[in-house]
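Hi R.,

Here's the chain you asked about this morning:
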Amino acid sequence: MGADIAVKIDADFQHDPTDIEKVIRPILEDKADCIFGSRFMGGLQYQMPMYRAFGNRFFSWLTSKLTGLNVTDGQTGLMAFGKRYLKNFEIISDYNETQQLIIDAWSRHMRIAEVSVLFHKRQTGKSFISWRYPMKVLPTIFRLFIHTNPLKVFVPLGISFIILSIIVAISLFANIQRLLGDATIVILMMGGVQIILFGLLADLMSKKR
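And here is the predicted structure, written out as tokens:
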């Protein structure tokens, strides 16, 4: 659509629409490309249930670990994006987009920041989050991470196979064991090299995005 800024806000009024100004301000001032409103920087207006608080903290921690960013709210429903990111952003699932957008923006070297936003207790509607939530979200997060950073996954995995093949080779002494071990060593060594090559190929493909 050619918009300068796009804002996403949940429709249940737990987020305060007046905070839209806060999330677009850093983009208007050219200080950031992507702004995520954080409920846990002083804007939470009620005692969140323990299971939801734990889930939010866990996914924020996981997103932080994968990206190296200091993410305080990995499931916020209020965020804004500038034109630089809107030109080429990508998400691979329509379920819980927040972590996907953080990881995707990070992989594209966007300027990412958080601002404190209000978050009220739900008065109407029903949350879509259930016990199935982690089983849907975790595969998407790791799939996107592999998609954006294949070398960080394939190279360590491939090296592990190669090291394991060396350990097997050193540990074999008897002739019978050696015959069995030789096949194991070759399989592990070739598997490790192939995994690394797959990682390099995936990295080349991801750079074309």
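One quick note: Helices lie at 20-28, 50-67, 83-86, 97-107, 133-148, 150-171, 175-206.

Cheers,
M.
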